[in-house]
Specification:
The protein has one helix at about 30-50; strands at about 10-15, 20, 25-30, 60-65, 70-75. The protein is of the alpha+beta class. Strands 1, 2, 3, 4 and 5 form a 5-stranded antiparallel β-sheet that branches.
């Protein structure tokens, strides 16, 4: 006898600064843990692609359940702090 696994639909809304891109389709996962892993991987990938280019300084994925209720957020940020004044070259 095979065991039936109930899949739940999760939505991954993406927030970059003031811009929000809602997930209209969602994806099905066996558990919240599996959806959380997917959200973390997606946030890391988006951050890798966009943050170094200066498009945004922070990307947040809001993970929502099948009722569109937020169940967790994953945030990836980059902060660049130049030294001011710039150091002088060493004198030998």
């Amino acid at each position: 006898m095979s065991r039936l696994i109930r899949m739940s639909r999760y939505y991954f809304d993406i927030r970059e600064g003031a811009r929000i891109v809602p997930d209209e389709e969602g994806m099905e996962f066996e558990s919240l843990d599996a959806a959380e892993r997917e959200a973390a991987e997606a946030a890391a990938e988006i951050g890798r692609d966009r943050l170094p280019k200066g498009d945004a300084q922070e990307v947040t994925i809001e993970l929502k359940n099948e009722h569109r209720q937020r169940v967790l957020t994953v945030t990836v940020a980059i902060e660049i702090n130049p030294v001011d004044p710039e150091p002088l070259p060493p004198r030998w």
